[in-house]
Amino acid sequence: MVGKSSSYSEQGYWDERYRESRNPFEWYMGYEELAPLLREQIPLEAKVMQVGTGTSMMQLHMARAGYTSLQGLDYSAGAVAAMMVAHDDLPGVSYRVADCRDLSDWTPDSFDAIIDKGTLDSALCGPDAAENARRMLSECWRVLTPGGLFLLITYGSPEFRLCHLMQPYLNWQVQIQTLSRKDPSREHSHLNFGRPVDPLNFKAVRQINGEKDCHYVYICRKAQFPHSAGKPIAAPQVDTAHHHQPFQQQSQPDACAT
Predict the structure, then answer these.
(1) Using omega within 30 degrees of 0 as the cis cutoff, is the peptide bond preceding 253 cis?
(2) pLDDT digit of tens for each residue in the chain (258 aa)?
(3) Which residues make beta-bridge pairs with 115?
(4) Per DSSP, which regions of the chain are E strands?
(5) How many CB atoms lie within 10 A of CB 210?
(6) Cα–Cα distance between 204 and 98 in angstroms, integer?
(7) 11 membership: H or E segment, kind and range
């Protein structure tokens, strides 16, 4: 893909987008559709970060559902300003202008859960895709508590996401789940939740890799124990030429393909 999609990783694109419109917009799916998954995976008392919030209403609906500590961040000042105005009276909800490739404002073990709806997908568009993904994922891993959850909702199939999520520097366990609408013609149709799949079950992964008209959820749970002395905490550069089989690193410009 070329053209507009190649700009999704650029801050200027999002600044311009939110200058033109600050109306609520939900990438992929909203709280109504994802609520069963969120309730199953994230306790109400968890400290939750949503990366790349844009003008999503997720924080609003999660607060109303009983979640008590919600941090939204986006590197578009326009999007954050709109959300701060819209949700300034919500207890436990805050917003920050920040780049999820650099979360140095937060110490390690700051959050119990991080939600990403499409931000990694944007990072994988345009130049330096693999490096952008490496920086983002290593920072998200760092600020998660032991046992914490990185919940990725994406159109990216296992073929094009596991090569980023299953790097040695990410000391977490990954499961894959498919989400498909029971009625594809209805935007807010109830979802069919597929059975979680172990990425090492290559046969099952290949089956879901070919599914049409679905989202993928990657449930990444940080290990309860720290890295061993011989395992680096800092993320190494991603080798885009030699990834483990059976999942190949996606080459440019197709890294934005969803």
Answers:
(1) yes
(2) 334 454 655 666 555 656 566 666 677 888 988 999 999 999 999 999 999 988 888 999 999 999 999 999 998 888 888 888 888 888 999 999 999 999 999 999 999 999 999 899 988 987 889 999 999 999 999 999 999 999 999 989 999 999 999 999 999 999 999 998 766 566 666 778 889 999 999 999 999 997 878 899 999 999 987 654 334 344 334 343 333 333 333 333 334 444
(3) 50, 151
(4) 47-51, 69-74, 93-97, 111-117, 144-154, 172-181, 191-193, 215-222
(5) 8
(6) 37
(7) helix 11-20
